[in-house]
Amino acid sequence: MAKITNNGMDRRTFIKTSGIIGMSVAASSFGVPTLLRAAAPTIKIGSVQPATGPLAVIGVGQRRGNQLAVDYINSLGGIKSMDGAKLELLLGDSESKPEIGRSEADRLIRGGAAVMTGPFQSGVAMAISTLCEQRQVPFIMDVAALDKITDKGKKYTFRVFITVTGLLNGGIKYLKMVTDMKGVMPKRAVVTNTADAFGKGMSGGFVKFMEKSGLPIEIVDRVEYPLGIHDLSAEVARIKAAKPDILFPVSRPGDGIILTRELYKQRVELMGIYGPGSPGWYEPDVIKDLDKLIYYVMVNVPWINPSSPVYQQANAAFEKAHNRYLDTNSAYAYTGVLVIADILERAASTDPEKILAATRQTNFTKHPVVGGAIQFDEKGDNTGALTALIQIQPDEDLLKRVKIVAPKEFAQSDKIIFPAPQLWERS
Amino acid sequence: MIAIGLSLIFGVMGVINFAHGQIMVMAMYVSYWIFVLLGMDPYLSLVIVAAVIFALGYLIQFSVVNRILDYPEAMQVLPLVSVGLILENLALLLWGPDHRSPQTALSLKTLWIGPIMIDVSRLIAFGLAILITILIFIYLKKTTTGKRIRAASDNRTGAILVGINVDRIHNAAFGLGAATTAAAGVLLLPLMPISPHMGHDFTLTAFIVVILGGMGNLIGALVGGLILGFAESVSTLWLPATLKQAVSFSILIIIMLFRPQGLFGGKK
């Protein structure tokens, strides 16, 4: 039954979206005089994001991030080395599915996209990168973490985001840092994860990295539950029975709330909650709804850099347009287009080979996220990509509760609270 | 209780309401709105929400379901699935895709009896669910409208012959079924975050419960719900939580094989 409904919805939305895009494409080709277009040529960037389906909340944010950067570059006069050519974003919707992502990418390439970006999900990224290799269109991914996307000697695929390996390394590095700094070592741990590809892959990887890390923490139980679960009482009872000192959750938006409330209700004693790298803990709605219960949760995550002028400028524009702050995913989407603009500026051409040559020379520092200069290694991964360790700390202002605590040069708070007070001892 | 609403609608009209979960989600959002805008606790706003959703159910029956009652069953499915889709996307439009979970006064309260924890919200939900079921039962047995609903359910032609406005009775019955589901949604609000896409799961679970208890049988729906809930919770002790649904569907298959009319279903 659920399947029928899903298909119905997706098809409709698909038709609707493609209709709108079709109309706008038609409008742009008929409505604008040809002469004018010749005078100020546009460079088309194809963006495929999960704008509908279960990840819609993220996909829409990604699109907005892409668009904001396009508008920003155009407002500064476009690509100067190409006579001020303006950027134009072609929109594709993957509906959170690889096969649709691929056909949407195909459509955008046929529509004249010189460079592709997107697509948030690793599965979709795999599909689009294969297509881009065939069509020889550079694919600068803004977000997608799975290592193997850039494996197998791909030529046209590059990634601004961090890899899963980078993410896991960060998770272990910061855990060591916190335990060293505080002189406390948890002995028993439970890993929880959602039963989707990301949850399974991430938690499996984390367990392996923990074993290799030399940290004396024993993972006593692993609790997996379906994506979109509504009740975790039985799972938390199992966590309680395992008597962990620390919890490593790999969650998705929604289950973090249920998990924390249930831990509170069942009085599970913990030194703290440490997310190896997943959403569900830092979204404004979650922070608002959980209030004191979410204090002191630490998460290792690719993060925004609020002290950078680029972030402040972009965030102000984003807040004005959409009435919410520029979160980490949208900020990466924004960065993706900035990097593409930088590459086009240096390539001074939309010829794929020239773009590739310029991409390999990238050294981009004016970006709004935590990390070093964006440079691509021979696989196409960003060598400057870094994660941050964030902790939710008490603050009157809801939006200021998320604090970067490491790396030092980006830190917003110099104290880390660990072990944390028990959930039920907080008022 | 979600199942009771579904069972009620099926029992009277013989239509399976595939928009059931979505109706419940609408109720949760209405209750959420009342909580956020007026600061009224979900337990207090229950009656208001039930009334609003009764009107919604009445409208759905009046505008859609009454027109498709005589169609083959397969054709009845689609309009209701469409209603579900419309409601789901309406929720998406009005409240956005974020997960929302307001902290109500009682949402974190627990009672401890020695080492055993009792979740107050669940206890209240359980108590109110039983109370509301009893009230619906009394309503159907004792009041005139209730009797008319049962009459229309037993024999539609007969009911028309004795002068009952069956269409209106159907509207009321669908409204009542929807309101019951609405009440269930409100009771769930302190327990789980709401998001627009969560309706399907509940439609499906309610459907299993109804089949388990016997189609159209209200007591069956209550007992079926208890059995399913218990089986799912206990199964997580031995099985991965990801197999929860496998447990529910195994129960469904076993019931279909050995007692297709359900535990409490009479012969049809």
Offer a concise description of the structure.
The complex is a heterodimer of chains A (427) and B (268). With 427 residues, chain A is an alpha/beta fold.
Give a verbal description of the structure.
The complex is a heterodimer of chains A (427) and B (268). Chain A is an alpha/beta fold and 427 residues long. Chain A folds into two domains: 2-162 and 307-360, 3-Layer(aba) Sandwich (Rossmann fold); 165-301 and 393-425, Response regulator (Rossmann fold). Chain A has 13 helices and twelve strands. Chain A has a seven-stranded mixed β-sheet, with helices on both faces. Chain B has 268 residues and is mainly α. Chain B has one domain. Chain B is built from eleven helices and two strands. Chain B has helices at 2-13, 20-38, 42-68, 73-95, 120-142, 144-154, 156-161, 166-188, 199-213, 218-238, 244-258; strands spanning 110-113, 116-119. Chain B has a two-stranded antiparallel ribbon. In chain B, helix 2 (20-38) runs parallel beside helix 4 (73-95) and helix 2 (20-38) packs across helix 9 (199-213). The longest helix of chain B has 27 residues, at 42-68. The A-B interface holds A 1-2, 4-6, 8-9, 12, 54, 56-57, 60, 195, 223-226, 228-231, 233-235, 238, 253-254, 257-258, 261, 264-267, 283, 285-286, 289-291, 293 and B 18, 81-82, 84-85, 88-89, 92, 96-103, 107-108, 110, 117, 119, 188, 191-193, 195, 197-198, 200-201, 203-204, 207, 232-233, 236-237, 240-242, 244-245.
Present the secondary structure layout.
The complex is a heterodimer of chains A (427) and B (268).
Chain A: H1 2-31, H2 34-39, E1 42-49, H3 56-75, E2 86-93, H4 98-110, E3 115-117, H5 122-135, E4 139-141, E5 157-159, H6 164-182, E6 188-194, H7 197-213, E7 218-225, H8 233-241, E8 246-250, H9 255-265, E9 272-275, H10 284-290, E10 298-301, H11 309-322, H12 328-347, H13 352-360, E11 388-392, E12 402-406
Parallel strand pairs in A: 1-2, 1-3, 4-5, 6-7, 6-8, 8-9, 9-10
Antiparallel strand pairs in A: 10-11, 11-12
Helix pairs in contact in A: 3-12, 4-5, 6-7, 12-13
Chain B: H1 2-13, H2 20-38, H3 42-68, H4 73-95, E1 110-113, E2 116-119, H5 120-142, H6 144-154, H7 156-161, H8 166-188, H9 199-213, H10 218-238, H11 244-258
Antiparallel strand pairs in B: 1-2
